[in-house]
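Tokens as discussed.
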């Protein structure tokens, strides 16, 4: 690492194109100082960086400056700068500060090189596999190549908003990867210091390995809100169970029970197989008093109105035979107010053994957000002190118990309500040490880059995709969709992209058909994007039959099992696209490239080896001329029509093309 950075420093030691000037010393030393005409020849201390390099920064005006170093008490010239002049009877290095440089290809000048010891640039997946990235200001260099001892290198270039990014996906059998970058810009090719390589040691990695379960890439999931999916065992119903088929009002949907349970999910196996799903994500199933179960009463017990541990084991075994994965919801930010620890706080007050499990504000403790910290000030949801070792020990037991049943992973609730270190240093290793192939998904609604650094999760619920797809399908601009999705595709570690949970709706949102004003073609565009885009589609129960509903609680109505009330056009569309996706590896884990964008039309391709799928979609009521020549004969799965060239994108349409 140090040798590569030295290359850049040699360049900076002579010229700088901004007023922030940096000086570097790359050798071992106990103390490094600088003197010069810009310090009035007073000694100024360097700081040692995390890479082991000494650095001094200062703001300077345009001009010519003289300086020398003092290393461990001895005055020397800057070894990285061969430009020096006599000043006041003594040799000094010179540094020229020029006017702001505008990046331009081929001018033999590079403004900045962005590369350091972080996952953003050095991203080891596992022993023998790593991604290396390097960035430059936009249009500053002509090309970059990698010289290494790797067995295989795949290169990709990404034009970002204000930078150009080169990514090298590297495979090697060697324990030590030797590599350097060739940076071409005009006549000069800049590479590693003195032609030497720097090393990544796979046996002693500077950055943690980060791989995600292979099975999770491109998989198709189905989200089930257990209380509202299907009633398979009426003996565990509440006495006041409501009529499954309605009519419904707000209070009923918020507070009343309709009888959905785990046996109902088991009984729906054939339906789920017909639909084609490959994984089930369950909202919380542990004992709680509410319909949603986010107010956990006992994490070590299945809610008795959902079933027993035996029923849960039967469910896992039933779906394991069908290769359908089971993901549980982990709610570790807060408990219910009747969780045993909080109950003792209410009962014993200052004598309770569990005061430090929560954040108590004042005594006496009564059920009020004024008395203890809560999730969004709901007194039913007291916030846990997850730094308490006993709390962590309890959740370690919870994770261990349910993973011993054979579940395949966890979706973790409200992750931004807890410091990142809890996830990366406790939950992630606790799960992976039990089963390294378990999937960990965080519920986060924004840019999740920070959660992938250590890492904390294998994936997140991809609300960025959801918002972009809905906005586009509602008649939005093509470039906006591409730019917004590119913002994470080009930023997240590449190994997570095909495992991102691309949902269009959830228990926390309006249903997708409602969001799209029940416009069938808008829905087909949104679902078409979901089933062909980079990531793993997640279908919210009932969306596939055209169920409607506004925000919570109206998005949580019981599943409509009366087929006469299904929108069969929507159901058959889902089935067709799911089957197509399952049969094309290009859609599961292939590359993604935008071929054209024009007003409301997007043309992109997914490619895996010889398998190629081209998607053309137009969100507006206008015909768009695109003149797309195809490399052979392609068939549209939706119409059966064949094409060698596409001249226009029809209004409010989607085409999914493949070679037979």
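Sequence:
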């Amino acid at each position: 690492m140090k040798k590569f950075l030295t290359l850049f420093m040699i360049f900076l030691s002579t010229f700088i194109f901004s007023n922030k000037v940096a000086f570097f010393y790359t050798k071992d030393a106990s103390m490094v100082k600088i003197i010069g005409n810009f310090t009035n020849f007073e000694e100024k201390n360097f700081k040692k960086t995390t890479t082991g390099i000494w650095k001094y920064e200062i703001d300077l005006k345009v001009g010519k400056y003289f300086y020398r170093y003092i290393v461990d008490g001895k005055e020397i010239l800057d070894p990285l700068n061969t430009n020096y002049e006599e000043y006041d009877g003594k040799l000094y290095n010179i540094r020229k500060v020029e006017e702001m440089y505008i990046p331009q290809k081929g001018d033999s000048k590079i403004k900045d090189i962005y590369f350091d010891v972080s996952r953003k640039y050095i991203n080891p997946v596992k022993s023998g596999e790593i991604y290396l990235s390097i960035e430059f200001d936009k249009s500053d260099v002509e090309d970059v190549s990698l010289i290494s001892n790797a067995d295989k290198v795949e290169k990709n270039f990404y034009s970002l908003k204000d930078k150009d990014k080169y990514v090298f996906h590297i495979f090697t059998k060697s324990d030590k990867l030797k590599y350097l970058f060739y940076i071409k810009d005009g006549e000069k090719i800049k590479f590693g210091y003195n032609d030497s390589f720097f090393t990544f040691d796979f046996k002693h990695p500077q950055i943690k390995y980060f791989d995600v379960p292979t099975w999770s890439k491109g998989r198709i999931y189905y989200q089930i809100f257990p209380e509202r999916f299907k009633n398979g065992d009426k003996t565990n119903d509440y006495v006041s169970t409501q009529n499954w088929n309605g009519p419904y009002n707000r209070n009923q949907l918020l507070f009343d029970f309709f009888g959905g349970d785990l046996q109902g999910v088991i009984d729906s196996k054939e339906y789920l197989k017909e639909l084609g799903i490959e994984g089930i994500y369950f909202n919380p199933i542990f004992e709680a008093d509410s319909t949603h179960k986010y107010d956990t009463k006992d994490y070590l017990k299945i809610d008795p109105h959902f079933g027993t541990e035996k029923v849960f084991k039967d469910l896992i075994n039933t779906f394991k035979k069908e290769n359908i994965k089971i993901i549980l919801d982990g709610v570790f930010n807060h408990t219910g107010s009747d969780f045993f620890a909080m109950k003792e706080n209410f009962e014993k007050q200052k004598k309770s053994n569990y005061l430090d499990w929560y954040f108590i504000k004042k005594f006496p403790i009564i059920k009020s957000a004024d008395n203890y910290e809560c999730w969004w000030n709901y007194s039913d949801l007291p916030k846990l002190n997850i730094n308490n070792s006993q709390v962590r020990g309890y959740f370690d037991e919870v994770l261990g118990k349910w993973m011993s049943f054979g579940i395949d992973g966890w979706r973790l609730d409200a992750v931004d309500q807890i410091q990142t270190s809890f996830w990366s240093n406790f939950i992630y290793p606790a799960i992976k040490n039990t089963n390294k192939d378990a999937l960990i998904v965080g519920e986060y609604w924004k840019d999740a880059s920070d959660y992938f650094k250590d890492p904390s999760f294998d994936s997140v619920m991809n609300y960025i995709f959801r918002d972009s797809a809905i906005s586009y399908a509602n008649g939005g601009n093509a470039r906006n969709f591409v730019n917004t999705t590119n913002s994470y595709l080009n930023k997240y570690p590449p190994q997570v992209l095909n495992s991102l949970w691309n949902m269009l709706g959830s228990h926390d949102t309006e249903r997708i058909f409602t969001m799209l004003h029940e416009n069938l073609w808008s829905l087909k565009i949104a679902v078409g994007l979901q089933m062909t885009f980079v990531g793993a589609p997640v279908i919210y129960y009932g969306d596939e039959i055209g169920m409607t509903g506004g925000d919570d609680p109206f998005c949580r109505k019981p599943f409509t099992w009366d087929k006469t009330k299904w929108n069969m056009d929507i159901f058959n569309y889902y089935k067709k696209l799911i089957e197509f996706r399952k049969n094309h590896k290009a859609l599961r884990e292939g590359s993604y490239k935008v071929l054209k964008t024009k007003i409301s039309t997007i043309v992109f391709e997914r490619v895996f080896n010889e398998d190629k799928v081209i998607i053309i979609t137009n969100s507006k009521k206008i015909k768009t001329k695109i003149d797309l020549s195809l490399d052979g004969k392609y068939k549209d799965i939706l119409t059966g029509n064949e094409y060698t060239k596409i001249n226009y994108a029809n209004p409010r349409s989607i085409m999914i093309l493949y070679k037979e």
